[in-house]
Amino acid sequence: MQPHKLNRRSFLGQSGALAAGCTLAALPVSAAFADFDALAYGAKGDGTTNDAPSIQQAIDACAAAGGGRVILPGNHTYLSGTIELKPYVELHISGGATLKTCGDRRTLATQGALIFAKDAPGIAVTGTGTIEGNFTAFFNEMGDGGYKVIEAFLGPYDPLDPPGTADPATGRPRMILFLNCRGVRLLNFTIHNAPTWTIHPVGCKDLLVDGITIDNDLLVPNCDGIGIDHCQNVHLANCNISSGDDCIIVRASRNFDQYGPCENVTVTNCSLVSSSAAIKVEPEGAQAVRNAVFSNCVINRSNRGICVSNRDGSLIENILFSNLVIGTELRARMWWGAGEPVFVTNQPRNKQMKVGPIRHVRFQNLVCHGENGIFLYGGPDSPVEDIAFSNVQLTIEKSSRIEGGFYDLRPGDLNPGVYQHKLAGLYAENVDGLQLEEVSLNWGANPPAYYGPALVANHVSGLRRQSFRGLAAHPGKEPDILIDGKPVVEGFLNRPPRDLK
User: Fold this and answer.
1) CB-count exposure of residue 162 (10 Å: 0-12, 13-18, 19+)
2) Could you tell me the residue ranges of all domains in the chain?
3) Is residue 28 scored above 50 in pLDDT?
4) Residue 183 above 80 pLDDT?
5) Distance between CA 239 and CA 348 in Å, rounded?
6) What angle do CA 268, 269, 270 make, to 5 degrees?
């Protein structure tokens, strides 16, 4: 193949889809960028031959040449075990091409993913083709409300289980797993039917994800969409994600603490559907999650809209959610969630754990319609701190056939888990500094008996209310407002707030 006549400057100029502040790692000035056709290296593309060795040969040749593009031509299905990207290599899945995950775990277990990279700068996966996860090769039994949960991860790079327990015989591969890579682009392709976490960047810097579609089965557990893990300087935009588990997660999972905090993340212009949480912020380890903005997204038919949860000792701070439309509906109990548009909890996972704070979280310009209200829940020794809602419209209405009237605090050994409770428009417990400004609540027609007060606040200090409008679901039968278990008059909320810590 004839090499493209691109120098380093023109190459970077043509990859101008990168968002401001997210720059590709510097490429060798002497690199001659060429296309490497996987078919020319022996790939069959017949859907039955394992094409991983041939695709890997093309990748290795591309890397040896100083970088370039490995192409999977269209109108072919490339069955594959793990392929490993090398520095400055772009894997281009052409329109009409499908890269299909092999159902033989042995071809995927060394790294635990279909597309893998470690310590590789300047890598990319692009094109308008499809990655097929082939989840039916790994699941064969239904449970209550979804496929029966089996071990989540193949390979040695398990984010959560202790070393030595990794790579179980029943594990499942991730579709894309990148560790400690800089200047990463994931653009325009589609992923179907992932059997576990779909895209998992760990310890990556300067990451751009733009214009991709993830279409997973809503009955498959653990098939999270995009898990941004210990990464810095991340821009995720214009994605359409449907996933049985959480769609977008910003996390710092416990087995990758060497990569530092997860910070400086923007997520915008996405459409999300989840059987669990559409957007989740959750450290799951000792490193912090901070400085993240989520904007201009539509969440629909999700068991939980936004989840900010701390169970494992770290810090969550400086998180902004703005300009979101959130629609929720209940799913079977195997899925965590209770139809909340916003769910914020800070509790230790067990009695040995002491969690850090959740603080400085803002929700503004939200339109919410679902089966439950906003839920804020800290522990007596771990309150949620400095939470503000501004210009929020909340409509609570029964829509699914699943019986409601419960809250869901999973996971954790020190909380009641799923427990029956009257549902409030906004429920807050152990919160230090709560501001409500232009928040309105409406109930749908014929609300069930388990819908209750407009506002419940227990052990909440620094409560500031500037125009909170809403009555109980059954006015006259129950109080509109309960503070520490006692009905109160409106004037109570108009008193000057205590100073925030």
Assistant:
1) exposed
2) 1-79, 107-168+177-239+246-252+259-275, 303-501
3) no
4) yes
5) 33
6) 100
Q: What backbone phi and psi angles, to 5 degrees, belong to 216?
A: -95, 160
- Exposed/middle/buried for residue 308 (C-beta within 10 Å: 0-12, 13-18, 19+): buried
Q: How far apart are CA 130 and CA 128, in angstroms?
A: 7
Can you say whether residue 229 is alpha, beta or left, with left for phi > 0 and alpha for psi between -120 and 50 degrees? beta
Summarize the confidence of residues 362-371 as an average pLDDT: 98
Share of residues in the chain with pLDDT > 70 (%): 90
* pLDDT band of 176, cuts 50, 70, 90: very high
For 58, list phi and psi in degrees, rounded to 5. -65, -40
Which residues lie across from 395 on neighbouring strands? 369, 442
Answer for the pair 378, 431: CB distance below 8 angstroms, yes or no. yes
| Max Cα–Cα distance, the chain, nearest Å | 79
Q: Please give the Cα distance from 78 to 115 (Å, whole number).
A: 13
Please enumerate in sequence order all residues whose Cβ is within 8 A of that of 102, keeping only pairs 6 or more positions apart, or say none: 50, 52, 79, 80, 81, 108, 134, 137
Cα–Cα distance between 63 and 490 in angstroms, integer?
A: 68
Q: Are 58 and 24 in contact (CB under 8 A)?
A: no
CB 174 within 8 A of CB 112: yes
Residue 218: phi and psi, rounded to 5, are: -70, -5
Q: What is the pLDDT of residues 117-157, one digit of tens each?
A: 999 999 999 999 999 999 999 998 998 899 999 888 999 99
Candidates 3.50.50.60, 1.10.3720.10, 3.40.50.970, 2.160.20.10; CATH matching 107-168+177-239+246-252+259-275: 2.160.20.10
